[in-house]
Inverse folding.
């Protein structure tokens, strides 16, 4: 099995120059548009990251941009990250991931980080976690909360949405009245028609790459995520924009309604593929794309 996987990697590496050209032509054609980028007016920002590195992969450039303008950024890591490897010392891995989170905090200029230490791939929206998150939100009073998209291959990413949904229902309107919920992409992309918030990270792109490289404990490839930030810049009319991060921006009420509309109705890992790897990026984008578009439409019904 190991030899077969090694051979597959070698073949993909040999095909990389051809695949790179193919990716550029097809993916840019798919995303090409004439949109404008958004400003980031929020002064207090909270990110919910199911795992250490999710916030950097999905929105690291945006985090850097917030820091540059003096906004307070806070990250809560919901799980212990123990499920990222199938072999080795689990406690050592958890320790390593927390060390990487501390380095990321310094690099991204995060005001605070918290660890909820739930079991990787075992995240649940318990009353205890809801109250813990509620307390944090009431203390920080974020103007926007970033979470992974609710249609995602990883169960912890989907469950993060449920945790926030359940917590929002516990909060007073004076906390949520002007709040925004902004969904970021990690494993599974938002259909282009659903993207309604684009951030120009051209000036932050090189530092985002450096931030991603902090996470040496991870064995998966990150090049697909990086490529997408560059390739998706064609969504923007301004040619000086060369890298972007894209989001689905919702009101709390709209987020709750859309999550509930499709909650528990799909096992996304059976239908979609992670976009982490450049060589399989096209397949990951187009695999069951029509189904994904229909799920998002259904969430609005």
């Amino acid at each position: 099995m190991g030899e077969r996987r090694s051979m597959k990697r070698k073949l993909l590496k040999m095909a990389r120059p051809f695949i790179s050209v193919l990716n550029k032509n097809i993916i840019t054609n798919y995303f090409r548009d004439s949109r404008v980028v958004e400003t980031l007016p929020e002064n207090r920002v909270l990110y919910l990251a199911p795992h250490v590195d999710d916030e950097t992969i999905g929105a690291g450039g945006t985090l850097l941009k917030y820091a540059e303008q003096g906004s307070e950024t806070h990250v809560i890591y919901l799980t212990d990250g123990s499920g990222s490897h199938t072999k080795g010392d689990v406690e050592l891995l958890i320790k390593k991931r927390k060390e990487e989170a501390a380095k990321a905090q310094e690099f991204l200029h995060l005001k605070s980080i918290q660890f909820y230490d739930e079991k990787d791939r075992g995240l649940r929206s318990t009353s205890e976690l809801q109250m813990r998150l509620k307390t944090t939100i009431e203390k920080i009073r974020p103007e926007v909360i970033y979470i992974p998209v609710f249609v995602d291959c990883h169960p912890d990413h989907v469950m993060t949405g449920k945790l926030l949904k359940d917590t929002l229902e516990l909060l007073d309107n004076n906390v949520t009245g002007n709040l925004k919920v902004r969904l970021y992409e990690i494993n599974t992309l938002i259909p282009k028609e659903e993207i309604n918030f684009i951030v120009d990270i051209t000036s932050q792109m090189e530092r985002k790459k450096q931030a991603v490289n902090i996470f040496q404990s991870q064995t998966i490839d990150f090049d697909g995520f990086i490529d997408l930030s560059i390739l998706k810049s064609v969504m923007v009319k301004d040619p000086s924009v060369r890298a972007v991060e894209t989001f689905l921006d919702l009101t709390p009420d709209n987020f709750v309604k859309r999550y509930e509309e499709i909650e528990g109705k799909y096992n996304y890992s059976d239908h979609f593929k992670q976009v982490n790897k450049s060589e399989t990026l096209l397949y990951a984008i187009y695999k069951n794309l029509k189904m994904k578009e229909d799920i998002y439409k259904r969430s609005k019904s």
Notes: The mean pLDDT is 94. The CA atoms of residues 17 and 93 lie 34 Å apart.
